[in-house]
Design brief:
about 65% helix, 7-stranded antiparallel β-sheet, about 20% strand
Length: about 350
């Protein structure tokens, strides 16, 4: 029995890998073609476009794992059914429950890989990709260190100690240079609040200006500053919700709720990320009754087509329900989990019919 279990598992893993690589190749090609339309702007060339797409691959993998798991299981099990190997296994006394258990063990491995990619690699890679593209197009320079984010914008060097997810900047320093590259003023602010366009409000502001007679210090509780960061650079330093790890999202939701700010969109994103591994388990479970039921005798192309319809259908339903939940003020936990629960119910109902 262990040999059969291993054979089933390896077959499903291989089929899923082939499907995932195929989907990633398609998404990579489309993304690269789209990036080519931006080349020629600033220093953004074909090489940087290729690096951008490569950095986006972990994010694509995270998004494509649920449909790839469904298609992989359907293709793998369908291939065994088409060659009558599943029939031989059943005749040898292998129950559907055992095959289902193997499929779920494979799904568990996929869940672990998805969490590692989605919470470890993808957020870092997406941030690097967006920073690379925006700075190359805008012609600015940047350096990210343990002491903050450094940006070169025009005749100023900007250091941001910390970026809050609402776009608020903490521990900001603006070093102004003259045309000879010499420092003639240093501006500091404990907090910088974006007020639209390129307008900023600096709190606890201090300006040190160097003159021939010495340094002159000016302090203000508030100070208006134009051009601290352009709109494009602000998008880079501000972390998007779907690029945050789960623990960062959780901390930020607590911050919003403690300050009585709207948090529904972030809560929905958090639950979508939490449910992604469970969605993979639902997808692989759904593949079993489909292969043993209505698609037992159809060809591989039909299985792939049906699998794509189910995968795309789930994605669209998930997006529509999520947006409707935000519009009609439905609890984000309900709107985020409803599509997965519905598909899980369908999978369980189909599994009962097999017995």
């Amino acid at each position: 029995m262990r040999i059969i279990d291993r054979y089933l598992g390896v077959t499903i893993v291989k089929a899923t890998a082939v499907v995932l690589v195929s989907l990633l190749s398609l998404f990579t090609l489309v993304s690269f073609i789209d990036e080519l339309t931006r080349t020629g702007q600033g220093s953004y060339d074909v090489w940087r476009a290729a690096v951008f797409v490569a950095l986006m691959l972990p994010g694509f993998t995270y998004q494509l794992f649920p449909p790839a798991a469904l298609l992989g299981c359907m293709v793998g099990l369908g291939g065994l059914a088409g060659s009558s190997e599943l029939t031989a296994m059943r005749a040898a006394g292998v129950p559907i429950a055992r095959i289902t258990r193997v499929v779920l063990w494979v799904g568990l491995g996929m869940m672990v890989i998805t969490v590692l990619i989605g919470e470890g690699i993808s957020p870092w890679a997406v941030r690097k990709a967006e920073l690379l593209r925006t700075l190359a197009i805008s012609g600015e320079a940047s350096l990210s260190t343990q002491k903050g984010l450094w940006l070169r914008q025009g005749q100023s060097v900007i250091r941001v100690g910390r970026v809050e997810h609402n776009g608020r900047l903490l521990n900001v320093e603006i070093v102004e240079l003259n045309h000879n590259g010499q420092v003639y003023a240093i501006n500091k602010a404990a907090t910088a609040i974006h007020q639209g366009s390129n307008h900023w409000l600096l709190l606890a502001y201090e300006r040190v200006r160097f003159t021939a007679s010495g340094a002159k210090i000016e302090r203000q509780a508030e100070h208006q500053w134009d051009g601290l960061l352009t709109e494009s650079l602000l998008e880079v330093v501000t972390v998007r919700a779907n690029s945050m790890p789960i623990w960062t999202l959780y901390e930020y939701i607590n911050y919003l709720e403690n300050n009585e700010l709207a948090s529904q969109a972030y809560v929905a994103t958090l639950w979508n990320k939490l449910l992604t591994p469970i969605t993979i388990a639902v997808m692989v479970l759904l593949a079993v009754p489909i292969v043993f039921g209505p698609l037992r005798s159809v060809g591989a192309s039909a299985r792939i087509f049906i699998g794509m319809l189910i995968g795309v259908g789930f994605y669209l339903i998930n997006q529509v329900v999520g947006y409707m939940g935000l519009v009609f003020q439905v609890d984000p936990r309900i709107s985020a989990s409803l599509p997965t629960l519905v598909f899980a119910f369908i999978a369980m109902a189909m599994m009962r019919r097999l017995r």
